[in-house]
Write a structure and sequence with these properties.
By secondary structure, this protein is an alpha+beta fold. It is about 40% helix and about 15% strand.
Length: about 150
C-alpha cells in the first residue's frame, strides 16, 4: 500500500516503492529467476558469487531482452538453449536477439542445455575463457550436442 503523498509503502507492502515503477523487463527477469531450468540451476551454482573469478548475473535485462546469464565486465551474454530453440520461429527470434546484443556491443555465447547437463566443466571453462579474454574465442571447444564425454 502506498501512503498518500509519500511515495513509500507501508511495512506490509515490502518497502521500496511500488512495482508500477519497474520496467517490464525487470519484472519478467525477477519472475524468470524463480522458475529456473535444471541446466540454468547447475550453471548458476558454478558461476554465482564470482566462483569463476568474475561476477555473473542471471536473468539480466539488456534492452528489451533478458539474458540467461550476463558478465558485465566482459559484456558477455550467455544463453542456455533448450529444445525450444530448435523451432523455426525461435531460431528467428534468437537471430534478431543476438543481432541486437551485438549491435549494442555485447558478445553472445549460446550453450546447449544438453552440453550443460553432460559437460558442465567444459561449459564453465568456455565461459571463463570468453569472459577473461573477451576478444578471443574459446580455447576449450564445447562438445557437439549429443556427443558423449
Amino acid at each position: 500500500m502506498i501512503l498518500p503523498g509519500t511515495g513509500r509503502g507501508t511495512a506490509e507492502g515490502g518497502g521500496g516503492g511500488g512495482r508500477q515503477s519497474l520496467r517490464p523487463e525487470v519484472s519478467i527477469a525477477r519472475k524468470l529467476r524463480r522458475t529456473t531450468s535444471l541446466p540454468e540451476v547447475l550453471l548458476w551454482e558454478r558461476l554465482r558469487g564470482a566462483k569463476a573469478g568474475f561476477k555473473v548475473r542471471r536473468q539480466h535485462p539488456i534492452g528489451p531482452y533478458i539474458a540467461d546469464f550476463f558478465c558485465s565486465a566482459a559484456r558477455l551474454a550467455i544463453e542456455i538453449d533448450g529444445e525450444s530453440h530448435n523451432r523455426v520461429d525461435q531460431l528467428e527470434h534468437d537471430r534478431v536477439r543476438d543481432a541486437f546484443f551485438e549491435e549494442n556491443g555485447y558478445q553472445v555465447l549460446r550453450v546447449s542445455a544438453v552440453d550443460v547437463l553432460k559437460a558442465l566443466d567444459a561449459v564453465v571453462a568456455t565461459i571463463v575463457s570468453r569472459a577473461t579474454a573477451p576478444l578471443h574465442r574459446s580455447a576449450v571447444p564445447l562438445p557437439a550436442s549429443g556427443e558423449d564425454i
